[in-house]
Amino acid sequence: MDIGKTLGILILSLGCFSAVGQKYETTRNTSFMETVDADARIFVWHHFLSDDECDYIRQKAEKRLERSGVVDTGNGGSQISDIRTSDGMFFARAEDEVIEAIEKRLSDWTLTPVHAGEGLQVLRYRKDQKYDAHWDYFFDKVNSVNGGNRYATVLMYLAAADDGGETVFPKVPAPNGINADFSDCAKYSLAVKPKKGDAILFHSMNATGELEERSMHGACPVLKGEKWSMTKWIHGSHYYMGGDKYDLQNQEYTRLLNVFKAGGNHANGTFSALCNVQSYSSRKCRSGRILSGTQHDVDSESSERVLQASKITLVA
Ligand SMILES: *[C@@H]1O[C@H](CO)[C@@H](O)[C@H](O)[C@H]1NC(C)=O
Ligand SMILES: *[C@@H]1O[C@H](CO)[C@@H](O)[C@H](O)[C@H]1NC(C)=O
Ligand SMILES: *[C@@H]1O[C@H](CO)[C@@H](O)[C@H](O)[C@H]1NC(C)=O
Q1: Does residue 179 lie within any of the structural domains?
Q2: Is residue 219 part of a domain?
Q3: 63 with 182, same domain?
Q4: Which residues partner with 9 through β-bridges?
Q5: Digit-coded pLDDT (tens) for 244-268
Q6: Which of 193, 187, 186 is nearest to 168 (CA)?
Q7: Which DSSP state fits 230?
């Protein structure tokens, strides 16, 4: 990974929450974003999470860990497989203030609404545990019913392994031919070494809404120590989770959107009501447009193209 390709510097962010009765620092080390592969749209945000956030999430997740499954392409359920040997668990969306703040940060970074994301999944990889290379994108209908197909993934490291455990992208060669001090599994492909607090963003769909083959990725076996990671899978549109607050928000958004499309206008307040319902939509509301269909923000040229490719229409 070439640290020279730095995109920009994000300033130390300050804040604090009190979660479960305990004062809680979200102050992060100076963070910066690195473009790992601009064309495949793979980025690393160094120090995305504070050490406190990592430790807090890990402790909270530990009691709920179970052997990880892989998604069953027949019925959308989970099944145990040798290709994935970690232990894991899921949080509810906005399960507590810390999780909610992280989800908001993820939403801002990826320009996708919180409600397009699944609940955060935490994984623990012990020695020799791994996840063979795969796509997060689905090739079957059953799994893309809820929220459409997966659009992007953010993979966060809560704890680095002492050795091994790299995230590897086997469809992309190592930038300089070889990653000298990486484990064998990660030597010849684009790979990221786990570092506590760092996050990788990659896209399962390319800018025209088709499978981005280079998003194929795997978790190399941990050789020493323990690796903890956390994943946010983001779909193309609203991902329903049993009626949580984001589901209700989306319901209200859809209702207002229908009012709006049926002839509502800015003057009678429909427009601002829509903007208020969607907390992530400030940029969109400033630009004076509302999306129907999937509701991704339209700040970047590429998400604009994804929307066009997915036959999403802009109204207003
Ligand atoms: C900043 O990084 C140092 C060294 O890695 C670490 O000890 C410290 O806990 C970090 N601080 C925060 C707020 O994450
Ligand atoms: C997306 O992927 C498809 C299939 O590989 C390809 O035909 C298309 O050109 C790609 N779009 C972009 C913008 O790279
Ligand atoms: C706005 O106006 C439209 C059309 O006149 C109406 O159907 C809708 O109910 C109004 N919306 C609100 C929020 O008052």
Answers
A1: yes
A2: yes
A3: yes
A4: 32
A5: 999 988 887 777 767 766 665 544 4
A6: 186
A7: E
Q: Which domain holds residue 262?
A: 245-315
* pTM for the whole structure: 0.77
- Count the helices and strands in the chain (H runs, E runs): 6, 21
Nearest ligand to residue 271 Cα: 3
What's the domain count of the chain? 2
Could you give the dihedral angle defined by the CA atoms of residues 282, 285, 290 and 294, in that order, rounded to the nearest 10 degrees? -10
Which residue, among 266, 269, 311, has the nearest Cα to 291 in the 3D structure? 311
Cβ atoms 158, 102 nearer than 8 A:
no
The verdict on 164 and 256 lying in the same domain is no
Say whether both 178 and 54 belong to one domain. yes
Interval 274-283: pLDDT, tens: 555 554 444 4
Which atom of ligand 2 sits closest to the CA of residue 211?
2
CA distance 266 to 227: 51
Going by C-alpha positions, the residue among 214, 185, 188 that lies closest to residue 202 is 214
CATH number at residue 166: 2.60.120.620
The Å distance, Cα 229 to ligand 1 centre, comes to 18
Ligand 3 pocket test, pick from 255, 257, 265, 270 with the greatest ligand atom count within 8 Å of Cβ, gives: 270
